[in-house]
Structure to design on (290 residues):
């Protein structure tokens, strides 16, 4: 039975996944044309049009930026390059923005360009760990910009939502200060609400640690899920996998399921930081027959 173990209102590799599928088709022409990674019958041109309508809208791409912390150093920079190729928007470090009044500006090929829309890729727990960054604005400022993925979404639609979801397809989760006394902590994983990429996750929490948390309502205990090792690899070992269902939420519309991203692992957790000495792990894409 499929299980929902994560919820994240934050952009994923929307640009790269489209290019990845094209590369796979070119490398493996035997893939049937009726196998796709998308949903709802959406074709590549429609997918790209929806992405452009959501991120760029009616704005000149020169006035739309992908905002990140030192984008050239991020592990997801390949997606930033793909996004610029597909949509014509630049990746800009948040330290490079200038603020005048309620408006933001950035340098584009030696000329100052106003920022009207921000495709936000800043991860806030990373921002908190970078007190060295010199910013000319604050995310709390009243700015004359449109956020594509408002910063508040990162906090509201996240692990914070999981304890409120009670279905057969969600892994039970509780805020640590609301953990039932009749449940065994050994069966649960301890997770900070707003961490990213597995940071701070404790796979084997102890009651002493849980009860000593200074802010227990900022942590959850989520029931463990046993990942199946089912993907055969040339190395002999089998990889585990999870699938990320990728939605786009256009203005004045409802969330639309458009694509997927598969994460494979041979370690205790998903993510490249937990599989550095492994092969046949990392990001991929799943195809299904239409």
């Amino acid at each position: 039975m499929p299980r929902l173990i994560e919820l994240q209102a934050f952009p994923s590799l929307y640009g790269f996944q489209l290019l990845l599928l094209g590369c796979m088709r070119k490398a493996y022409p035997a893939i049937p044309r009726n196998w796709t990674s998308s949903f709802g019958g959406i074709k590549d041109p429609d997918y790209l049009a929806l992405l452009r309508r959501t991120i760029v809208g009616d704005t000149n791409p020169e006035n739309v930026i992908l905002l990140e912390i030192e984008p050239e150093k991020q592990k997801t920079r390949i997606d930033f390059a793909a996004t610029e190729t597909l949509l014509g928007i630049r990746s800009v470090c948040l330290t490079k923005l200038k603020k005048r009044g309620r408006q933001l500006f950035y340098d584009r090929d030696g000329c100052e360009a106003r920022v009207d829309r921000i495709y936000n890729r800043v991860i806030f727990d990373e921002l908190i760990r970078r007190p060295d960054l010199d910013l000319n604005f604050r995310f709390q400022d009243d700015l004359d910009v449109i956020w594509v993925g408002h910063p508040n979404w990162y906090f509201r639609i996240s692990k914070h939502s999981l304890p409120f979801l009670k279905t057969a397809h969600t892994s039970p989760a509780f805020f640590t200060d609301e953990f039932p006394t009749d449940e065994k902590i050994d069966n649960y994983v301890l997770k900070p609400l707003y961490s990213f990429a597995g940071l701070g996750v404790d796979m084997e929490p102890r009651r002493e640690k849980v009860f000593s948390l200074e802010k227990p309502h900022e942590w959850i205990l989520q029931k463990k899920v046993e990942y199946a090792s089912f993907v055969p690899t040339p190395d002999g070992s089998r990889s585990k996998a999870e699938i990320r269902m990728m939605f786009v939420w256009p203005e004045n519309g409802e969330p639309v399921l458009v694509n997927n991203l598969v994460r494979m692992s041979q370690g205790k957790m998903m993510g490249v930081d937990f599989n550095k000495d492994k092969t046949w792990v990392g990001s991929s894409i799943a195809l299904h027959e239409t």
The CA atoms of residues 119 and 286 lie 26 Å apart. Helices lie at 14-27, 44-55, 77-87, 124-128, 153-156, 207-211. Residues 14-156+227-289 form one domain. The chain has a mean pLDDT of 89.
